[in-house]
Amino acid sequence: MSAGRDAPPQRALPVLADVARLSGVSEITVSRVIRNKGPISDKTRERVLHAVAETGYVPNRLAGALASADSMLVGVVLPSVTNIVFADVLRGIHEALAPAGYQPVVGVTGYDADEEERAVRSLLAWQPAAIILAGFEHTEATRRMLAASRIRVAEIMDIDATPIDVAVGLSHRSAGRDIARYLLSRGYRRFGYVGHDWDSDHRARLRFEGLTEELAAQGLALVAERRIAGPSSTLAGRETLAGVLATGERPDVVVFSNDDMAVGGYFHCLAAGLVPRHDIGLFGFNGLEIGAALPLRLSTVRSNRFLIGKLAAEALVARPDRPADTAIINTGYEIEAGETA
Amino acid sequence: MSAGRDAPPQRALPVLADVARLSGVSEITVSRVIRNKGPISDKTRERVLHAVAETGYVPNRLAGALASADSMLVGVVLPSVTNIVFADVLRGIHEALAPAGYQPVVGVTGYDADEEERAVRSLLAWQPAAIILAGFEHTEATRRMLAASRIRVAEIMDIDATPIDVAVGLSHRSAGRDIARYLLSRGYRRFGYVGHDWDSDHRARLRFEGLTEELAAQGLALVAERRIAGPSSTLAGRETLAGVLATGERPDVVVFSNDDMAVGGYFHCLAAGLVPRHDIGLFGFNGLEIGAALPLRLSTVRSNRFLIGKLAAEALVARPDRPADTAIINTGYEIEAGETA
DNA sequence: CTGTTAGCGCTTTCAT
DNA sequence: ATGAAAGCGCTAACAG
């Protein structure tokens, strides 16, 4: 098993030319076989495929994309991947892209517009066929780059503004209003609010505005309101509800900025001996699995995140060039009655 | 505002040559300015940068990577992104790659080795500088491709086998044993186990094996064991614990395959009026935030997922070529005493 | 400090 | 059904 001194010590990776030589055809024929394009005789195809297997050839998509000016890549710019909400969206995107042969390339912003700009610039360098980003809050530079690129752009999660190209999501303002209506119909009158940072999570603010607008329309105002500076979390929800209940007027229902916060509120109730709905109503947003697993199912709003990702990706794939006018795809939401409000 | 008939109707995206022409230098000089490489006079740099801004030029990394044979891409193949555990790992990877100028490209397997093979093949086509994948269970074809590519390979999460190149993670078998030791030291003797699908989650099985091995060493065996077919979830944990407690011998402590399942168990206790630790011990794995937010902090094991991702990416970036021998980086774990066991 | 030349590995014409 | 030539947009290697 000793290597002769003329044995290639570090054989370079096989390229198209190697496969062509081995199968005795031209490079373009191999290319056609691999891409299933153009007419190829069965005999040739077989020979080429055999050579591909023998060499372990893996096509270089860098070169392929450059030559064909078609990367089959879709840039996806999300605030976070640790947040299950965006992870679900990503799953939906993946589900729609995979069968069409597209690959998502993800960038993360940490809820920061300048980071988003950096991510978009870096993704555009890969010549994606389209780009998906969350929300409408972009820097001017981001907008310019997107416009110049002329590729398709989906803005997702939110539909409460005019999109660059297509928006896919739900109206958070309208959801906020419906939460108010639902809780009013349940007999609640003294509303409290427990939320997290608005600067980064603009959609939470829209829901809050919808909520308070509808309350105002009924001549009501919040009796208690508390917002923490950082991101939402179960722990924060728990502690913040405790703070709210320790001082001032006692609400008969508390609306949380999302399910994470609301589940924390639930935990506080457990620890404090309060029975949700009986002693105090709790209402979330998103419809996460954890809420449904609680001893009392959390009352919340289902936000159809998977669907948002899927429909956004499908819309982009269906029409590769930017349409003349903008469009909005409303994925809706559903009030999940639950048992806590 | 009417467009003359000789107005360029669809100006193509600017390329290096356009910037070069506009700034009156050669393409390579522009390239050097953009990449901050080689000596450039301040005057030239300024002129070039000006032209870049004016044209809105965005470098084409497809072409750059092809020409330099260096993609600055790192393939990341994970079982799931919806699972917070892997999302945390991904954050760690991102944290280490970003400052070094590398871009992660993610593929998802859904806990399936054939899907992993497909993902690896597809990522390899982008000529990544390295690849990160979860665990040691790969198909033969995956191993062959990885070997042929000669790029660096990090296998993460687990260190209970011999890696292809470098493994980064913790010993799940050893963690299982330590869980047994800890619970024995707390006085528990009648152990129950509630778990999820092993075929997909090999590491859960390793923990189980460590647990039962250590129990056997003390002359003990599980008094109850139940595994569901599907993936772990809070709901599944809740229902499965209920099932276990409804029949047969009553354990004094239940070890869950992970925190998701354990939190579900906790919820069952709440609903059934059982007080954790007092009536029955509950023990999880991972150290998720949710466990710490429960009215009684969940007893569990911290698995340092962010660190796993970070160290894996750092190891790859630090040494771009495959070393002669394999290495193992142990990120360890810590028993989190909590209040439920 | 700047430029010239020659490709990277593939796909697009356009022939045959 | 197959191939030859040209070139995608960029960078390495060598001048100068």
TrEMBL record, chains A, B:
Keywords: DNA-binding, Transcription, Transcription regulation. CDD domains: HTH_LacI, PBP1_GntR. Signal peptide: none annotated. Residues 14-68 form the HTH lacI-type domain. GO terms for molecular function: DNA-binding transcription factor activity; transcription cis-regulatory region binding. Pfam families: LacI (PF00356), Peripla_BP_3 (PF13377). The keyword Nucleotide-binding does not apply. PANTHER family: LACI-RELATED TRANSCRIPTIONAL REPRESSOR, TRANSCRIPTIONAL REGULATOR. This is Transcriptional regulator, LacI family.
